[in-house]
Design a protein that fits this description.
Number of strands: 16
Low-confidence stretches: 396-408
Number of helices: 20
Distance between the termini: 60 Å
Shape: elongated
């Protein structure tokens, strides 16, 4: 919640009992929410995400044996305290069996109630803190397991370490398949937020459903709205909302998103008033949003709101030292799932071919290639060049590609059997080589000065010279 006070939900069919509890807890630093039946209680769980639940499992004199169980099923990590008039041993035993935190009798003793609530809140705080610390560690580890252990990935993890504890919105840009969602999840895991990571593919939401999906709706808000619906913003309250491929939003949708980001409030369709949300927003795009703004396809004000912090995910071709590790990991993964065994790895020729390829589809493409390699190799056989797709080993995008000497070169004639991706990759590699060579010549052979002119660091310059065969 926006005021950061812990939320205590009181579920009791008797208003007098709810009022008594509210009076006792009024002077304590908690936010009280009330529900008088199971349906209101379940709705309150969804809306308010309570930290402690006080419940009387009797509704109008009738025992609701399923009430505690249903509450704990929805929020298993939230302590439940039973407050009831009945003192039968079997009820106490059943409540404890269902995992309740405490069992108090009515009329409630004010001191006992305050003590029990404080103990429950402290216990939940410690559990949340432990979970967050584990998440921070797992976020770092999972990113390096998923992307590799190169210097490039380590620098990326170092940047995320600084970003994660902040409340800033983050814009992640990178090519398709480069790992943008992995980076977003790592930021969430490394941050100290108790809420969920909610991911949305912005290109998959129809224009007419945008508001309903993101902001939610009330029952009867439109034809077919048979019940209340929680939107993505509310689902991500106190957590992270990941807007994947935000560049695909229409101009109108961008305007609606901008307003919510500015006001930090959402209003469900059909609702009479907005409600605050505390959401950390991470957006991702496989296209440059600066270029999209220049082309008038993206709002500049929304860009500034999303780009409080910027992360560029490097494509796989810029971190070739990760290729061997990732290929071996994927190969082991697929062989294990197929029951083949994972002791045989990659032959040197196959590894060289993989390292020389430009990977326009990035890690996603490499994963698909290794899936096929696992299928076509025999049990204990290492993956050899002949087990790889032809475009990987054809040489069109390996060292020594076709070099376009003139603007009127015919690439189709030069590479008659190559695909579009192979041709573009080869010409891009050739052009990159020519630019670096020219920069080194202009700098009188001073490679550090050439790297500065090209706005890359010396390590990147050294790696590219090695890849492209530049002396």
């Amino acid at each position: 919640m926006m005021n950061n006070l812990p939320v205590v939900l009181v579920v009791d069919s008797q208003k007098a009992s709810r009022d008594t509890i509210a009076t006792v807890l009024h002077s304590h630093a908690v936010e009280l929410r009330e529900a008088d039946d199971i349906q209101d209680a379940l709705l309150a769980l969804e809306r308010h995400n309570p930290d402690v639940i006080l419940v009387d499992p009797f509704e109008n004199g009738q025992e609701r044996t399923d009430l505690v169980g249903r509450l704990r099923e929805r929020l298993p990590d939230v302590p439940v305290i039973v407050v009831t008039e009945l003192q039968e041993t079997r009820l106490v035993v059943e409540a404890m069996r269902q995992g309740v935190f405490d069992y108090l009798h009515k009329p409630v003793n004010a001191g006992a109630l305050v003590l029990s609530v404080n103990r429950a809140l402290e216990g939940k705080r410690l559990k949340d803190e432990l979970r967050l610390l584990r998440g921070q560690l797992s976020g770092r580890q999972s990113l390096q397991v998923s992307m590799g252990d190169s210097d490039t990935v380590r620098k990326l993890v170092g940047l995320l370490d600084k970003i994660a504890p902040t409340p800033y919105t983050v814009l992640i840009e990178g090519e398709s398949g480069s790992g943008k969602e992995l980076v977003a999840r790592a930021i969430h895991d490394m941050s100290r937020v108790p809420g969920q990571f909610v991911a949305i593919d912005c290109g998959a939401i129809p224009e007419n459903l945008f508001e309903s999906e993101l902001f939610g709706h009330t029952k009867g808000a439109f034809t077919g709205a048979a019940r209340d619906k929680t939107g993505f913003f509310e689902a991500a309250d106190n957590g992270t909302l990941f807007l994947d491929e935000v560049c695909n939003l229409s101009y109108l949708a961008q305007q609606k998103l901008l307003r919510v980001i500015e006001e930090r409030k959402v209003q469900r369709l059909g609702a009479t008033a907005p409600q605050p949300v505390n959401v950390r927003i991470i957006a991702a795009s496989n296209r440059s949003l600066d270029r999209e703004v220049e082309d008038r396809r993206f709002r500049v004000d929304l860009l500034h709101r999303l780009k409080e912090v910027f992360v560029k995910v490097p494509p796989l071709r810029e971190r070739p030292e990760d290729i061997g590790y990732l290929a071996s990991r994927f190969l082991d993964q697929f062989r294990t799932s197929l029951g083949i065994g994972s002791n045989a790895g990659l032959a040197s020729g196959a590894l060289q071919a993989l390292a020389a390829y430009q990977w326009p589809g990035n890690v996603r493409e490499l994963k698909n290639v290794m899936r096929q390699a696992a299928l076509v190799t025999e049990g204990g056989q290492p993956v050899a060049p002949e087990h790889l797709p032809a475009h990987i080993t054809a040489g069109g995008v390996q060292a020594g590609p076709v070099r376009p000497e003139r603007d009127d070169d015919n690439p189709l004639a030069a590479m008659p059997d190559a695909s579009l991706a192979d041709i573009v990759g080869a010409y891009t590699r050739a052009l990159e080589k020519r630019v670096i060579e020219q920069a080194i010549r202009d700098a009188g052979g001073n490679k550090a000065a050439a790297a500065k002119r090209l706005r890359i660091d010396y390590t990147t310059m050294h790696r590219k010279r090695k890849q492209l065969g530049i002396e």
